[in-house]
Amino acid sequence: MSERSGREPSDAGSSDTGSSRAGSSGSGPSDARSSEAGAPGRDSSGVKSSGTGTSGRRSPRGESSGRESAAPATQSESASASASVSEPATEGLPEPVSRGSAEPAVRPDTAVIIPAKDEGERIGATVAAALALPGVDLVVVVDDGSIDQTGRVARAAGARVVRHSRNRGKAAAMESGAEAVRLLDGERSRHLLFLDADLGETAGAAAALIEPVRAGRADMTIAIFANRVKLAGHGFVVKLSQDGIKRACGWEATQPLNGQRCLTRAAFEAAQPLAHGFGVETGLTIDLVRQGFRVAEVEVDMAHRATGTDWRAQLHRAKQFRDVARALALREPAVAEGLARVRERLSR
Ligand SMILES: O=c1ccn([C@@H]2O[C@H](COP(=O)(O)OP(=O)(O)O)[C@@H](O)[C@H]2O)c(=O)[nH]1
Ligand SMILES: O=C(O)[C@@H](COP(=O)(O)O)O[C@H]1O[C@H](CO)[C@@H](O)[C@H](O)[C@H]1O
Predict the structure, then answer these.
(1) Ligand 1 atom 9: the closest Cα is on which residue?
(2) CA of 199 to the centre of ligand 1 (A)
């Protein structure tokens, strides 16, 4: 593996993923739906997508897209995108890893990034399942200022670990993880699969999120959890995000806050800067759909820890509400234009 040849992220632990990935627990989507940005619908393959997705046209980032009005890609954008999606360059990439006679070999092309704050109990199982995903040869856990053993357990399970010395929120942890992958990538450009730390062994079902991106059919996939434990939230934050996304870009998100997402590197870069904290998913969806990237939802057999009913759970929902509202406000055209003017003035 070539990861160590690049500049290492600070506090990166060792990982030897090559030997620990025998077998796969990935499972296919049991349902998938289709729609066009602003005009929800279904395509024949059943994938719910923000673009037509099968036409092979180029998106603003030089990737295959269903949007006619896509702006021409710049040369460098085009080059980096074509290396990561439809027709992946093979030169210099690792050989496909065979996972036994039952499965075809998959060329390693995806890094898993797990933001984690005080997840010592579940992170070990989540990392182990992530390392077993087909085509995954790197799992980066970003220990976001945990006060438990999250970092130690993650490293022991085979992850590279990046640590924030203080808690900086989910979006910042995702950014640090993506930057660590970029430094380790060298000439490659891995797809980025973001997973929450509390999935445990159900992280193995994330293979279905990678597949449409690997095949060049989507620029970002979002999980729909088939089974959810609904407790005391009454879906307030989900609705805030859902309605906001619909207003901002016309896309109807089924589980707008779902953090299990696979993106091409080009799509991730196009969404910078990420919305703060728990606003990150809402911002990502709006920013990518608005730019013509194809976003697809995939139903997966995954489950995370239910948010619960105690005061901590309600505080969590309050933080989610604040961050989603902020992400939406910053994407209102009038606010966005004002911010752009301020940025321009500051850069003079
Ligand atoms: O400040 C934070 C808060 C959360 N997380 C991580 O972000 C993911 C999603 O958080 P959580 O499970 O609390 O939210 P949910 O999406 O389940 O409501 C988990 O892996 C957390 O450990 C983080 O890295 N920093
Ligand atoms: O399951 C859901 O529909 C809700 C549950 O939240 P509430 O109990 O309504 O606060 O949202 C949670 O589940 C999402 C999975 O789609 C998570 O990713 C969200 O962050 C979480 O709030």
Answers:
(1) 196
(2) 11
Beta bridge mates, 31: none
- Torsion on CA atoms 269, 270, 276, 278, rounded to nearest 10: -90
Query: How do the domains of the chain map onto residue ranges?
Result: 14-347
Q: Is 156 helix (H, G, I), strand (E, B) or coil?
A: helix
Looking at per-residue pLDDT, the higher value among 42 and 264 belongs to 264
Cα–Cα distance between 316 and 172 in angstroms, integer? 17
E strands, the chain, are 48-49, 57-58, 64-65, 110-116, 136-144, 160-164, 191-194, 220-225, 261-263, 295-300
3 CB-near residues (< 8 Å, 6+ apart): 15, 138, 160, 184
* pLDDT score of 97 more than 70: no
Name the DSSP letter for residue 7.
Answer: P
Model ipTM over 0.90: yes
Distance 142 CA to ligand 1 centre (A): 11
- CATH class held by domain 14-347: alpha beta
